[in-house]
Design goal:
The structure is a single chain. The chain is an alpha/beta fold and 489 residues long. The protein contains 15 helices and 21 strands. It has two domains: 265 residues, Aldehyde Dehydrogenase, Chain A, domain 1 (3-Layer(aba) Sandwich), CATH 3.40.605; 184 residues, Aldehyde Dehydrogenase, Chain A, domain 2, CATH 3.40.309. The strands form six sheets. It has a seven-stranded mixed β-sheet, with helices on both faces. Helix 12 links the parallel strand 15 and strand 16. The structure holds 2-aminohexanedioic acid.
Length: 489
Amino acid sequence: MNNFIDNTWLPSETGRTFDNVNPADINDVIGAFPLSSALDVNAAVSAAARAFAEWRLVPAPKRGDILRRAGDIFTRRKDELAEVMTREMGKTITETKGDIQEAIDTAYYAATETRRLFGYTAPSEMSNKMNMSFRMPIGVCGIITAWNFPIAVPSWKILPALAAGNTVVFKPSDDSPHSANIFAEILLEAGLPAGVFNVIHGDAEAGSAIVEHPDVRVVGFTGSTHTGKAIAARCGQLNKKVSLEMGGKNAQIVMDDADMDLAIDGVLWGAFGTTGQRCTATSRLILHEAIHDEFVRRLTEAATKIVLGDGRKPGSQVGPVINERQREKILSYIEIGRQEARCVLGGERDMDGDKARGHFIKPTIFVDVKPHHRIFQEEIFGPVLSVTKVSSYQEAIAVANDCQYGLSSSIYTRDVSRAFAAIRDIEAGITYINAPTIGAEAHMPFGGIKGTGNGHREGGWTVFDIFTEWKTVYVDYSGHLQRAQIDNY
Ligand code: UN1
């Protein structure tokens, strides 16, 4: 399996490859993908830069027609792509279908936005002069993403970037390259001209070549805080626009008046869905003391019943974690947790039967966690939930906000005033009321504050603030020189 440059499938110029392996069964090698270098990136960026000259001139609604076709093809290939995605990154088929649906939604949404892409007009301070502004494409966008949403998250960036008239060089995670190639196949079939969309496989070497390339004008990144900050620092030096979606340590607050069954369903899905490997995953549970003991008992009872297994097997509810490195990282956090707090569920690998061949970790719950504990502060990115107890709404908010990240959040309460206060008080880019911390929709702004992001929002029309620059236009039809700020004062 190859890179995709200028609508052609090409191996890396270096001849190097890496293996993509099924995390549910490490004996199942999916294929070898190019381990690309700066040479490959140069070829892709050149193709994208050439293609930009024409693509920017295609009327936006015509670009939208191609995206709509891409949405149709994603729909047609949904089941097949879900199999591919589950095989390479582990989450269940139900979830990989959801991942693809998010891209379908984004494709149709971006297609319709091509008939809007609104600018604005305003009166001039002069006579016989007209002021207006337009969104302009920027050029070649470098898109670098993680493996946990191999289609959805790239689609949030790539499809609006294309809709706006940019061209793209995409480096997917080396844990989910196959899905990325199907993304390319779909855009090819939809009719995207050569060079408009390119895929470069590889590791940090390829990623940093994209960031460094002088013709890449915008970098869109989803991944770890460590890498995101390094990219942003470099983009600062190179004066490039950069949009970051990084870590999360998302809290679900459950107040004493909450619907307990609803809140338990919410935390089970938020904490253990996608094996806890979402930047929006619920990793902190903040319980009011009045319901704490009963909640923990019932939650633990329910979580015991979660069926771990290969995401492609019917009945599996939670799949493996992505790779050995992540597995070891999660297990080491579990060891830290055992020093800090009390493990009431899981806390170990699941080596039962076939699962011994994969990276399975049992859903894990820690109680008696204090807000300053490392397992309550640091992103683990696995099926590990840390529970703490509070005695009031104010304390719940203070604990929720005592965190370096600010992506998603949730509160379960039946008190409408408290719900609105929480919307105001929780420091996060997203707040759910009586719903888990996961479940973002394609047409709403997505992103976080504090250590999670750098002020940008994907999703909805806010994403176009990343992938366009403003052009302000003054049309003077007075026939004589008019001096702004001078003649009329
Ligand atoms: C991510 O974890 O990077 O809201 C994105 C959600 C999903 C997207 C998650 N729709 O959890």
